[in-house]
Design goal:
By secondary structure, the chain is an all-alpha fold. The chain has 7 helices and no strands. It folds into 2 domains: 66 residues, 434 Repressor (Amino-terminal Domain) (Orthogonal Bundle), CATH 1.10.260.40; 43 residues. The chain is elongated, with a radius of gyration of 20 Å. Keywords: DNA-binding. Pfam families: HTH_3 (PF01381).
Length: 122
């Protein structure tokens, strides 16, 4: 996992812990993890295992999607925009929109895969 992704993950964990009013020691105790381990996660020094993330997510009541997606705020806006439009349609129109969207996404994926990939320069 890239360093900036680990820093984002650590910041999310720290913010959620603070919102819960917990110290690092309390979070460590309540999740059965070590204090130093919690500290290293929050500082973005280590890539926590699935087991550790699962315990932290459950105790802090946060979404895994927030941890793994730093652009979530913009995506939330886009999703809300789409849902507003989607909800203004009747059931038949919604089915048409979903079918159209599926087709468009498949075309985008095929287009992206057909594009030449930049070569790493050393």
């Amino acid at each position: 996992m890239p360093k900036d992704a680990l820093e984002h993950l650590g910041n999310c964990i720290r913010n959620a812990r603070n919102e819960c009013g917990l110290t690092q020691q309390e979070l460590a105790d309540q999740t059965g993890k070590g204090l130093r381990h919690i500290q290293n996660i929050e500082k973005g020094r280590i890539n926590p295992s699935f087991e550790v993330l699962d315990a932290l997510i459950k105790r802090l009541g946060i979404s895994a999607e927030i941890l793994f997606n730093p652009d979530m705020a913009k995506q939330d806006e886009d999703i809300k925009h789409f849902l507003g439009k989607f909800m203004s349609c009747n059931e038949e129109e919604r089915a048409f929109l979903l079918c159209t969207m599926d087709c468009m996404v498949e075309q985008i994926i095929k287009y992206r895969q057909a594009q030449p990939q930049p070569q790493d320069s050393e």
